User: Which sequence fits this backbone?
């Protein structure tokens, strides 16, 4: 299995960056790159570093990092660079075409993880020195441009920014919209069973939000004013807070940089306070998303609801409540940990993308989060479940949480030979 994981990562490497999955996703994706680099760090430090440096090379002048970097043209994916038109933004990167949206900011904790895994700390410290200010600038971008009310919580303006693309979380927002019917040819459904992918009508919503952002040349202030989708996402903000912590640790290691450390600490203090007062739902005993456009909490539980454990956000009491919710809704002998959406909800769909299946990156985040809070048994369970699933069916993109679905010839769902499933497997077995 280990050799297979390495072979997948090496096959998905494109001389400077990795594709998440050969046909389905033929470019570089932001948070995929972070997880992939952590996998590389276990056996090929050069690739780990290069993966992140290539991503940072696509950073915009204002610190923004795009969610897809289109390194080359490919007709196996829609929407491509000609639809996204990131060049409409005056500060966009001139070297690489990209999207005008971002993804969960994992780069900060990725570079720290690479350093921790490294056996040559001196060389890795040089890598940190080369990259850390760019990551800091990215965080500055978020707090200066994505937090219109100065709460310490940044918004996402598109469901693709969340990384959890078609989660039921977004259904109530899409109900407020009435996008035009687009005529276009999807490519994902020619690689993967359409039952496991979003519907055509869902895609109309996704494209329409992009068109609105484009009509404002991707100007953040205008997007904050006009985008029908504007959400404070606990997963996204937890990744940012975790990455702030990581940057503090790394700047302390380098020495100097006092004012940056102070800034990072003050962002985190404010963010964590708002996070716990605004995004924690006492009835559900879980963190929930906040729909900033329609001024209402989205009272649904998903795997994102537990991700703040990874960033040290919940108090001990909140953590205990989160575990209660996780076990009562997502646990039990018949289920692998952890479904991406509340299995007790009528919106749960065990085969469809982010509407229910298990994703290895979320499991990985929760494994470390549970460990940090001292829930060792549950952490082990989530790790062993992940490894068992991958052992049974291979390195797919997402997986059924119902144990009864696993027969001798079962497969996973979505793309096969999926990079982050392979990369995070390498990290999990090394722990
Ligand atoms: C899908 C996932 C997203 C991921 C991308 C590339 O869009 O929802 O999280 O980054 O694929 O793997």
Assistant:
């Amino acid at each position: 299995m280990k050799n297979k994981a390495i072979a997948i990562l090496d096959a998905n490497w494109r001389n400077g960056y990795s594709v998440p999955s050969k046909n389905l996703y033929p470019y570089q994706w932001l948070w995929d790159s972070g997880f992939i680099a952590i996998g590389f760090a276990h056996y090929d430090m050069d690739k780990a570093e290069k993966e992140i440096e290539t991503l940072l090379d696509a950073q915009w002048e204002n610190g923004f990092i795009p969610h897809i970097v289109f390194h080359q043209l490919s007709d196996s994916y829609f929407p491509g660079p000609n639809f996204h038109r990131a060049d409409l933004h005056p500060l966009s990167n001139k070297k690489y075409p990209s999207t005008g949206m971002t993804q969960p900011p994992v780069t900060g904790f990725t570079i720290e993880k690479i350093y921790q895994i490294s056996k040559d700390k001196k060389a890795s410290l040089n890598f940190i020195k080369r990259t850390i200010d760019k990551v800091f600038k990215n965080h500055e971008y978020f707090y200066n441009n994505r937090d219109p009310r100065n709460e310490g919580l940044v918004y996402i303006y598109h469901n693709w920014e969340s990384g959890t693309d078609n989660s039921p979380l977004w259904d109530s927002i899409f109900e407020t919209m009435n996008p035009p019917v687009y005529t276009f040819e999807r490519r994902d459904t020619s690689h993967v069973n359409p039952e496991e992918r979003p519907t055509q009508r869902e895609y109309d919503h996704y494209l329409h939000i992009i068109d609105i952002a484009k009509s404002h040349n991707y100007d953040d202030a205008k997007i904050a004013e006009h985008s029908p989708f504007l959400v404070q996402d606990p997963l996204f903000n937890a990744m940012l807070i975790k990455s702030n912590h990581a940057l503090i640790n790394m700047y302390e290691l380098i020495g100097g940089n006092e004012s940056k450390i102070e800034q990072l600490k003050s962002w985190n203090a404010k963010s964590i306070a708002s996070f716990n007062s605004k995004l924690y739902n006492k009835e559900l005993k879980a963190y929930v998303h906040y729909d900033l456009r329609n001024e209402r909490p989205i009272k649904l539980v998903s795997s994102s609801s537990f991700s703040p454990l990874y960033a040290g956000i919940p108090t001990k009491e909140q953590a205990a409540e989160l575990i209660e919710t996780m076990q009562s809704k997502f646990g039990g002998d018949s289920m692998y940990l952890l479904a991406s959406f509340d299995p007790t909800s009528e919106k749960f769909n065990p085969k469809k993308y982010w509407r229910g299946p298990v994703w290895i990156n979320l499991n990985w985040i929760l494994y470390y989060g549970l460990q940090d809070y001292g829930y060792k048994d549950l952490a082990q369970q989530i790790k062993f479940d992940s490894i068992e699933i991958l052992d049974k069916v291979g390195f797919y993109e997402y997986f059924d949480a119902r144990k009864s679905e696993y027969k001798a010839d079962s497969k996973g769902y979505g793309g096969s030979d999926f990079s982050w499933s392979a990369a995070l497997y390498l990290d999990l077995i090394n722990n």
Observations:
- The longest helix spans residues 121-145.
